[in-house]
Structure formats: C-alpha cells, structure tokens
Amino acid sequence: MTVRLLPLDCPSCGSALRAEPLDIVFLCDHCGSGAILAEEGLSMLEATALLPTPGRRAELWRPAWVVEAHVVVTDRIRADRRPTPGWEGERVFVIPAFELPIAELTRLALALGRAFGATGEVPHEPVTGGVLDLEDALVLARHLVVGEEVRKPDMLASVKVVIEERSHRLAAIPFERGGDGLRCAVTGVTIPA
Ligand SMILES: [Zn+2]
Q1: H-type helices in the chain, by residue range?
Q2: CA 38–ligand 1 middle distance (angstroms)
Q3: Has residue 4 been placed in a domain?
Q4: pLDDT single digits (tens) 88-135
Q5: Ligand 1 centroid vs 83 CA: distance in angstroms?
Q6: Which end of the chain, N or C, is less packed with Cβ atoms under 10 Å?
Q7: Contacts 24+ apart (CB under 8 A), 100-107
Q8: Does residue 15 form part of some domain?
Q9: Is residue 79 part of a domain?
Q10: Angle between helix 102-115 and helix 134-151 axes, rounded to 10 deg
Q11: Domains contained in the chain, number
Q12: Distance from Cα 128 to the centre of ligand 1, integer Å
C-alpha cells in the first residue's frame, strides 16, 4: 500500500486549509474558495455561505453542498397499481456534507432546502468536517425526493426519480451552540453536536 501525503494548501491563495482527518471538502478561511480532494489532488470549487436568519448568531460553521438540479419523477404507480402523473422541475438542494445520522441529515437537508435564500461571503473561521462527496450528496438529494413522493397521500407503490445536476458549490452553514446539540442558525433545526 502506498501512502501519499498531499499538502492541504488552498489551490487559490496557497493558505493552509483547516481540516479534520477524514475531510475531503474544504472551505478556505483566508480567501473563501472551496476545494475538494480527489485522486489527483485538490481541485477548486465555488463556495458561499448561508446567512443566519435575523436574531440568530453564527457561533460555528459546518460545510454543505448546494446543488441545483432538474428533477424528473416518472413511473408513479399506486398501491392499487394505477399509474399517476409524474412531474419535473428545477430545485435547489442543500445537503449537509458533515457526518450526521441519516434521519438528522434528511431533516436538516429538507429544512435547508426550504429556507435557502440569502447567501454571503465564506466566513474567516473554520468550516471543517466535510466528509461527503458530490456523488453522495446527489444520492441524498434523490433520497429526499423519493421520501417526499412516498409520503404523498396517494399510497404510492413505486416511483422513478432522476436527479440531473445543473451546478454545484460548497456552502458554509451557521450554527448556534445549544444545550443539547447544535441549532442551525438558518432553519432552527437542532442536531446532535
Ligand atoms: Zn484560499
């Protein structure tokens, strides 16, 4: 086995990137660039930050993927075997890129997708813990849409969901420290710390 050591320097400005051991996506706290670690090394990504809603503070930041996608839902078959109309449309997904239990990740991603609005500059603060790559984020996005379809009241038996990615970037998400976890300063959703 060969171990390669890569310098984790920002591909844009050369500053050392802050990282935890398993991180594969990074936000530069110097110039605000995003980066992803692949076989060939680090490559740059567009990056932004979601802003806290009024009255909430950004005490710490965690990374997420913002994916613009065309969603196509077809082959909706109800439990009584009747086909029902599908739909398609554009949608913005905000998928947390840090480690969370799947139920919490789903809850936070749905809330962030609904709340997605004001964006600003990447903070000059650590945004670490990014372990989810884009491919996994797209799987999660599809999982969210399948879940929404299944929860509709028409007793769905099967459905086909295709997520066609249009663009992607990284985003810093603000959190407040709460008594029993971290509270998202955009959505108010609390997750385990
Ligand atoms: Zn930089």
Answers
A1: 102-115, 134-151
A2: 18
A3: no
A4: 999 999 999 999 999 999 999 999 999 998 899 999 999 999 999 999
A5: 51
A6: N
A7: 100/191, 100/192, 101/192, 104/191, 104/192, 105/140, 106/140, 106/143, 106/144, 106/147, 107/189, 107/191
A8: no
A9: yes
A10: 80
A11: 1
A12: 14
